[in-house]
Specification:
The protein is mainly alpha-helical. Among the domains are: 151 residues, no CATH class; 105 residues, Tetratricopeptide repeat domain (Serine Threonine Protein Phosphatase 5, Tetratricopeptide repeat), CATH 1.25.40. The protein is 67% helix and 4% strand. It contains 36 helices and six strands. The strands form two sheets. It has a four-stranded mixed β-sheet, with helices on one face. A two-stranded antiparallel ribbon has the order 2-3. Helix 27 packs antiparallel against helix 28. The longest helix has 31 residues.
């Protein structure tokens, strides 16, 4: 292939002045000669066009005026052409297959220019450096022959530019076909552009330049329409990689755009905008150390580059280096006091440190500088919500949506603020609005589900969590909360499936294993529950509640010493965990150590004076020791703290029955069953007390009710049999005892 580098223009022969002649300063000589030459050229052109036109057209009354105007316009255009500094695009060696389809070098050049202009126009909406680069479009001047000179007009303009030492820069695009070895013909060229393995070899040269190495691009298509956008990008890579980088970032993301910003800094090491943009795409990729280095370089190149300091601050903020980030925002606002974005980001860094009042001051400043700054109002609302000022937060969210009606995140946070105020209907409306704006927003369904759960609408909440997981199948928190709501509905098997899914997605999710264990315990699967609690403590060794529940599961299996060890571990981690003392007391009680149990219950109530269940258990331990008066006092305290505690009334009834106070006992059993109509144990105890009074028929009705509610209640069947015996119905009595014999004995029934 021939050398494509154009010859350098010859230097003018300035010569030497004759001996003894006065030397005219070179600069003055050029200043005199340039306007004279320009005037002579324009005058000659004007006269030639005027005489030629007069010769060909008869004189008209308005013709001379119009002609003079035309001459003036042409003269101005010629001057613009002479002083046009935009580079000229040359396309050479376009494959014959392209040209046969009408894609001549001129057409390709024009299409490349158009594509570059489209990219530039698309990126103008981005805040960026002033854009000095633009490829020259085709000249609007006709390429006519100058009369008498026999020289084309455009050639004459180029001659003048050479004379004035201002020849245009040129960008040469060399487009050739590239084939695998042995597939090309003897000339090294081919006309077949339809083969699937054909590639275009593109070399872009920019000259005269500063010794930039040519770029080599291989375009894996021989389809002209597919190749043209890539040709345009190849040209921009060598001439304007910064703008191309912005375009690629928006289309393909940070990683794809990085090489173009790097190229921009290679072409111009003083391009602070390119270094800042490079830092931004590195930050987006999580390469914070490299991003910091680029921002530092941008500010070294241009110490007054406020935007670079601001962006540097955001990178430091994301690394958790809030103090350093604040220093950068402070510098940015000092350089540019009217930059709302820097104040807003400064507020975010303060909020991340928990300094909400200081953060709010920055958000307020941002809105003073820019009253329609929606992000600042949004973040202001978030800071207020963190302070628990949900009504005030709602006002800021409302302002945000007035300024930016499509701000779906704002509607979500507004919904959460309303939920925290107990305004559930309004909250649901906000979540629904967010979903209307962005139907695939999983977090909106998730938060909506949480709001419904707070209202006790467990089924509706489950439906929202389900939708969230459909939109985002790896949404761990949604599976976890979904399981929690199913758990509340007593759907333990379904809940367990959700907890299992959550732990598959996040194997170290200790809380999911904890709830999984609780669901198993609710099913009476205490051994399996113990395994989940053990897994929880392996993942999170400082989880006292997990040790407590693990102890309860062990106690249910009769492993009291092992259970007590877990309760002790829980208390060691959290000495004020009243629930662990209560559980420890229950284990001791089941070992027959009522006095020791009472001491643990007492400790639980000291730590948590409103702990109704601990008072109830304490009362049971005291009653077992025969301290009935003290027991009654504890039951009374338990029911004062929690009037719907059916278990306390049941055990209070038992204690009264042991004292022979059956009428009072019946009243307590009745209260227990009113509060909890499916309380089989209370019906059984009530029946047992009735037998002590000889009221066998009434007692049998209670035993029957107990077994209807709990068909596995062996004690109730046994007691039923005893009552039937007392009535002389021995055959029926044996039948009831036979049923009881097949059932496991459990609980603290009579």
């Amino acid at each position: 292939m021939a050398d494509l580098t154009p010859p350098k223009p010859p230097l003018p022969n300035r010569g030497q002045p004759p001996v003894g002649a006065a030397r005219q300063p070179g600069r003055l000589r050029r200043l005199v000669r340039l306007p004279c030459a320009l005037w002579s050229f324009v005058r000659s052109l004007a006269i030639s066009l005027y005489e030629e036109t007069r010769y060909r057209i008869e004189r008209l009354s308005l013709f001379q005026t119009a002609l003079r105007l035309l001459i003036f316009i042409v003269g101005v255009s010629v001057i613009q052409e002479i002083y046009n500094n935009n580079p000229v695009l040359d396309v050479v060696n376009v494959p014959k297959g392209f040209q046969d389809q009408g894609y001549t070098p001129d057409v390709v050049a024009r299409r490349i220019r158009d594509r570059i202009a489209e990219i530039d126009e698309e990126e103008k909406k981005i805040k960026r450096k002033p854009h000095p680069f633009e490829i020259a479009a085709e000249s609007p001047l006709p390429d006519v022959q100058l009369p008498e000179a026999n020289v084309p007009l455009k050639t004459a303009i180029l001659f003048v530019r050479q004379l004035l030492h201002s020849p245009p820069d040129r960008i040469m695009v060399d487009v050739t076909l590239d084939f695998p070895t042995g597939d090309n013909n003897a000339s090294g060229k081919t006309t077949d552009t339809k083969k699937p393995d054909v590639r275009l070899r593109v070399v872009v040269r920019h000259f005269p330049g500063n010794n930039i190495a040519p770029a080599l691009d291989l375009i894996t298509t021989a389809n002209p329409e597919e190749a043209l956008p890539q040709l345009a990008q190849a040209v921009m890579t060598e001439t304007d990689p910064y703008v191309l980088g912005l375009y690629i970032f928006n289309k393909e993301g940070a990683k794809a755009s990085e090489p173009y910003f790097q190229k921009a800094t290679e072409l111009d090491p003083g391009d602070a905008f390119a270094f800042s943009a490079w830092g931004y795409v590195l930050k987006v990729q999580g390469k914070f150390a490299d991003a910091n280095a680029k921002y530092q370089k941008a500010t070294e190149v241009n110490p007054n580059f406020a935007e670079a300091y601001n962006n540097w601050g955001t990178a430091l903020d994301e690394q958790g280096k809030f103090a350093e980030a604040i220093a950068k925002y402070q510098r940015a606002t000092k350089l540019k006091p009217d930059d709302p974005e820097a104040y807003n980001n400064w507020g975010n860094a303060l909020a991340h440190q928990g300094k909400f009042d200081a953060a709010i001051a920055k958000y307020r400043k941002a809105t003073e500088v820019k009253p329609d700054d929606a992000p600042a109002y949004y973040n202001w609302g978030n800071a207020l919500a963190k302070q628990g000022k949900f009504a005030d937060a709602g006002d800021k969210y409302q302002k945000t949506t007035e300024l930016k009606p499509d701000a779906f995140w704002t509607y979500i946070n507004w919904g959460n603020a309303l939920t925290n105020q107990g305004k559930f209907a309004d909250a649901s409306a906000k979540f629904q609005k967010a979903i209307e704006l962005k139907p695939d927003l999983a977090v909106a369904y998730y938060d909506w589900g949480s709001a419904l759960a707070d209202q006790g609408k467990f089924a509706d909440a489950s439906a929202k969590f389900q939708k969230a997981t459909e939109l985002k199948p790896d949404y761990v928190e949604a599976y976890y909360n979904w399981g929690h709501e199913l758990d509340k509905q007593g759907k333990f098997a379904e809940a367990i499936a959700k907890y299992q899914k959550a732990t598959e997605l996040k194997p170290d999710f200790a809380e999911a294993y904890y709830n999984w264990g609780s669901a198993l315990a609710d099913q009476g699967k205490f051994a399996e529950a113990s395994a989940k609690y053990q897994k929880t403590t392996e993942l999170k060794p400082d989880y006292p509640e997990a040790y407590n529940n693990w102890g309860n599961a062990l106690a249910k299996q009769g492993k009291f010493d092992a259970a007590i060890a877990e309760f002790q571990q829980a208390i060691e981690i959290k000495p004020d965990l009243a629930e662990a003392y209560d559980s420890w007391g229950a284990a001791l009680y089941r070992q027959g150590k009522s006095a020791d149990a009472s001491a643990k219950y007492q400790k639980a109530t000291e730590l948590k004076p409103d702990y109704a269940e601990a008072y109830y258990n304490w009362g049971t331990a005291l009653a077992n020791q025969g301290k009935f008066a003290d027991a009654f006092a504890k039951y009374q305290k338990a029911t004062e703290l929690k009037p719907d505690l059916a278990e306390a009334y049941n055990n209070w009834g038992d204690a009264l029955a042991k004292q022979g106070k059956f009428a009072d006992a019946f009243a307590k059993y009745q209260k227990a069953t009113e509060l909890k109509p499916d309380f089989a144990e209370a019906y059984n105890n009530w029946g047992y007390a009735l037998t002590k009074q000889g009221k066998f028929a009434d007692a049998i009705a209670k035993f029957q009710k107990a077994t209807e509610l709990d068909p596995n209640d062996a004690y109730a069947y046994n007691n039923w049999g005893e009552a039937l015996d007392k009535q002389g119905e021995h055959e029926e009595a044996e039948a009831k005892r036979a049923i009881a014999a097949k059932l496991p004995a459990s609980g603290s029934h009579h």
